[in-house]
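A further point concerns the way the authors explain their paired sequence and structure data. An entry of this sort, consisting of the sequence and the corresponding backbone structure tokens, reads as follows:
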Amino acid sequence: MSKTCLLLIFLLAIVGHCHGDKILRADRAADVFNSSTVVVDRVARQTSSSMTPSQCSFGRGRELTGCDWNLTDVESVGFIDSHVPAWQLSSGRTSYFRGGPSTDASGDQDGGYLLMDTLRGVAETIKLSSMMINATLPEGRCVVFQYAMDGPSADRLRLVLRQSQLVHQMANDTVLLMPRREVLWEGRSDSSDKWLTASVLYSHGQPHQLAFEAVVDNSVQSQRRLRGHFVLDNVDLGTWKEDENEKALNENPDTLMVDPCLGHCNFDGGFCGWSNDQDDDFDWNLGRGSLNAVTGPIAGHLSRGYAYIDSGYPRRPGDRARLLSPFMEPTDPDQPLCLRFWTHMFGNGIGMLKVVQLFGPPGSDISSKELWSLTGESSNNWHQGQITVSSNMIFRIAFEATTGRNHLGDIAIDDVSFDPGPRPSAPQAAAAPTQQNDCNFETDECGWTNAVTRENMDDIDWIRHPAENSRLQFVKDHTTYTSKGYVMSPGRSPVQRPGDRALLFSRPFNVTSGKMDMRCMTFWYLMNEPIIDPTGPSLGSLRIYTRREEAFSGLPLLGQMVAVWRLHNHQAGVWKMGRALIQQTGNYRVVIEGLWGSSRGAGSISIDDISFYEGSCSTHPNQAMPMATECNFDRDMCSWRSIANTTGVRQDTDWRLATAARRPANLPDHTFGAPSGYVYFDVFSQQNRQEVIRLVGPNMTSGGIGRPRLCLTFWFAAFGAGDTTQLRVLMMDSVGGSEKEIWMLRVVQLESTRPDWNFGQVELESDGTNVSGQEVKLVYEGRASNGGFAVDDITIYQGGCKTRPKFATPIS
């Protein structure tokens, strides 16, 4: 048989098995991008009769189907049970048996989805491959899917394009298979099993496969196996049509989001709904490679096409060209958009590229805001830019290019996408003034500074360091998710004491006089204490404050700062997303406080990927929202003050901070187990006279009708031999001074005679004694002739609660 026939048979064999992963073995990707997605509304499910190979909701009830997706990852057979597919069909009804969320993406308990449980094996990457897909049209293909991830071992989910290329070697007349792999999308999630959505626009001129890759983090399983899973639903490989949005906009201006890839564009088949502004000096063009060796790109970022400005004749310095996006709907307050794009700015005469946000629907008076700008040459390469976009009204995005000093100034853009979720501005030098405090810490601290030593505000500094320098093993940063990536952490010192803290200050936020600045701060935090002391968690705390720029003479540091977010001690062994709402008048700075507890273990407190965007948002996680009255007394008494309520009280009888040298019965702090960090009163009267000492909190708004119910929680400890020693909690009207007892406990009611910490709580609900919504104060009142109480960790949560201990309910 001739070599030609043998070659033909070999090719046919390969084509016949082209969706087998043994053939399409993928190399590892070098370019990794971060992504975050947003929770979406209920999606109409596809019935089994309407399913097509490009669209799948995986069935319902007992009629589950994989829709031609290859559920068995043959590359990982050596790591998992080869008799069971790596990806399994499942539903909400089997979630406790197989794992996964309790419903599919549409909220149906019987609806099917695909599940990959990380407990089944130790393979790093588990693939789910599609059948072979034909070449896309030039306009591209919009892939839409819904997914969820949960558990510390669920690291990342990728969507990759895979194509096998056959190469004929002349030397020995053989055919080798050269795989091509391209990462189209990558997402990491703090979703906790919430269904999210993602959309990806891509184009490819040859038959290929798409594959989902579930990346498992086995480093978190070094000591014990931790659960985790990935799930997929409503996968749609439909082809995007460019004119659908224009048609829908003409028929109904209120319906704008017809295309899930609205605004995405790789410029291979046109402008994808983007259009040239009619009020500028010249237009953007489509290109496939510069004809000038000293300016412009030779090809697009990933494919051939791109958009660019031609700076040649008849252009003059300062000419401006604007490329406008389609109209976009208002963003979710908690999930703005991340605009990602690639720029090429090569040439001696490069001018400026701006990203501008235009507000208002068609035909209205439009205001604008600059989001991003970069000036001058930045080498003959493509560079990624990104910026967070938020709006409470319909808006558009404009790429505005301005010509430079000569005709060698072609500016190009490519691969524009809108990914749900905020991200720090990149590069940091291009961030607008309102985004100057965005930072991923990969290059430097982006203007964030430690407190000045001479001001004695803190004890230690924040340190920028590679994640591998952490006290923990297997730590990766959040930006690059490698051990070489940089994070910020409070420093450690050889003589460190519990309660030592570090303050990190942002650049100033300038606020127009008489206006309220409202913006959201998002960041990623790692608070991991792998070894818990017998006395309980004692890692430390992470807090976010705002601090007015004006001088506050006579006030302590905490009197100048307002807490907007806080968490204490161990939270998780993985990076978690935090979000805080900032509302401030006057110029201010954001202050990040890291405070070490008494933990003797190798714990870590770190932050990464800080981003700000304008608008309102909710605090995340919910328990991180601070209240005006809360205090854990680790440094001072916050806004609480001690007041004696009897004329004959001794001068040294009051509520005071415990110190290592002076504390009752050597009682440790409850928050961190430190020798100090709580308040107490201790009375000893030779005349057996009962003293009354009050701890009065700041003003707060009571709960009740028309307002969320509130729950006051705290920890208390009793000591001394006095049978009359008691602790009361009162609500006092700030205006009229009327009081109501809401919690009361006598020391004789406690079973233990040792000064141990006990938990207390009571609901703060108005019943007519205080008018709902009036300003009130909380009062801790101590009464004793021989003994006292200690109090720590005063916190208020939203929602009602039952009184604890039960016997602390006051008698009407």
